[in-house]
From TrEMBL:
This is DNA 3'-5' helicase. Keywords: ATP-binding, DNA-binding, Helicase, Hydrolase, Isomerase, Nucleotide-binding. One of its GO terms (cellular component) is cytosol. The lineage of its organism: Bacteria, Pseudomonadati, Myxococcota, Myxococcia, Myxococcales. Pfam families: UvrD-helicase (PF00580), UvrD_C (PF13361).
Amino acid sequence: MDLSKLNPPQREAVVTLEGPLLVLAGAGSGKTRVITHRIVHLLNERPGLIMARNILAVTFTNKAATEMKERLVHMAGPRAQGVLVCTFHAFGAEMLREDIHRLGWPKKFAIADMGDQLANIRRAMREHKIDDRSFDARKVLNLISKAKNSGKAPEPKPEGIGDDYDLITHMVYPDYQLSLKAQGSVDFDDLLLLPARLLREHPDLYEKYTKRFRYLLVDEFQDTNTAQLELLKLLAGRSRNVCAVGDDDQCIYSWRGAEVRNILDFDRLFPGGKEVRLEQNYRSVQTVLDAANAVIAKNPERKAKQMWTDRTGGTKVKVVTCPNDEEEARFVAHEIQKHMALGISADDIAVLYRTNGQSRPIEETLREKNIGYEVVGGSEFFDRREVKDVIAYFKVIVNKLDEISLLRIVNVPSRGIGDVTMERLNVHARGEGVTLWTVMKKATDYEDLPPGAGARVMDFVDLVERYRAAYEHGQLANVTRKLLEEIGFREATRAHATSATAADKKLKGVDGVLNSLENFEKREGPKASLPTYLNRLSLDTRQEEEEVPGANRRVTLMTVHASKGLEYRLVFFIGMEEDLMPHGGMQGEAQNLEEERRLCYVGITRAKEVLYLTRAATRVKRGKEVPRTPSRFLEDLPPEVIEVVELDAPRQGPPTTEEKNFFANLKERFKKPAIPGTPPGGTGPSGGAAR
Ligand code: ATP
Ligand code: MG
């Protein structure tokens, strides 16, 4: 490998093979590059001693993992195939696939999705006579998840301390865990906790895993949570070869339990190591970097970083005010079209936003203009009823203990197995102390079922068993086609749809599943099995990614959260308004405001060459047009690196005084450009472009 493609501190990080190593550096400084090069160096340096299978690289998303793996194979050839590159959760799932039976789960465990989790919570709440209409099960689930991510179970609170939800969470938690286990399932958080338990409680497994994974590398270390850190510490217990890279300014997942302390305290967590700082930014032009630095500089309590770039100059960052959100979308689409005409490829372009809801107007205008796009994180697809039904079939076929999925599809499409039948069977199961599936297998033995129901249940059992056997031989998509045909899924869907177009839309969902199965089979080859597909699916949707079949050169639409680690030549960061960026309801709390600022920094630093920060003067909220205040972060931008653009479409209502002052201020500052020859307050080439 050519070490000359690295700068001196990067090289130092790459050639340091033993002991803990922290690379703490700002955005675009080549941290992720250090990880890939270090892996290749490990493979090259001690052939025969360090094998690909000894290396584990942890990324933040599955997408990042796939990309890193591809790079590795590109750089080091096929032997890099053996390096395990995945997220913490995928790694946990991998460990559990091998050894979860040691904790009493079935080997083919399932990963519960949000729907399964909520169903279990509600069931537990009902058992405690807690009304699930007065108390929000989602909130309870959140509290449970938070506790698990911080590495501990919800603890009993002393009398009188904590609110109702704390109390409910405490009551429901043990039942929730038990029912998951009884269903042979784990939740997303268990993918971190159970592997740690395996390592802690089973010395032979500790031996096995620490011997195998002797070189650990973690990207985006600033966003690890306590449960992940715990797992990492256990894995590194013997070798101590942990290389972590990250940027405290990019910690944006504290709402999901990320602990920025983990990176700040690295030398205490992994003593005796080395720390490397990187200062050159290779990604962005000067103007973008200046904007980013100015925004993040306002955060107190950060490890100060000096960042510079030799990509001096660059076009100014465009700060664009649009009359409303529809106009904002039109402006963005128009500028995209313009840049594509100038030769920028669609996959070099991203539109970033704070909340998922902001993508809709953008999607509509892009569709109008026939510009291909991909929404990262639109989990809508898997929320569709038909898709959920098909997936529930898979889950039951893989795991007959999964009663939630079983109850979902036992009568879908309708096959004359009603609620009464299932309730009676459930009573029998409880009475006999066996699973629902066990009594279903002998349903004709029970005389209290409606006439003929027993036989119909047995037919269903037979169907599931037959397909369980059929799936053993791969051919996932084909077997699924047969299954759907046998149960008349398409006809039933069509019959229940309100119109032909509604039916088409629903059936598209079914085709989407078949597509995704085919892609999965192509990717995995002979390793493709239904259980791994299900695991991958739950990991992927949780990581907020979705595969959209179709063309491969598309504009990317995603939340700023999802954009971490990525880079694009042209970036639109939309909705630069109070209440969105920083996000509403968070302004009061200083800590959240700091995180919002970091988020803003992450968004800005995705741009390599051209950055647009857009905002709408008004937005429609609940049918009413409300005026919007510009984001406070815009005020922090150095006037000499921005260009203010105001679109002059007819606006609804006069600007607020606040707005006027803000832009007077911005323009005032802009009157003294650092780069001579720029028109003050100029609308530039893009002014009024949306019309
Ligand atoms: P982030 O904090 O956003 O994750 P990062 O620190 O991981 O950023 P990278 O994505 O690794 O940064 O690198 C940013 C860009 O700079 C990439 O395009 C990378 O190829 C390039 N780059 C990094 N180091 C060098 C180098 N020494 N020479 C040339 N290009 C480099
Ligand atoms: Mg990176």
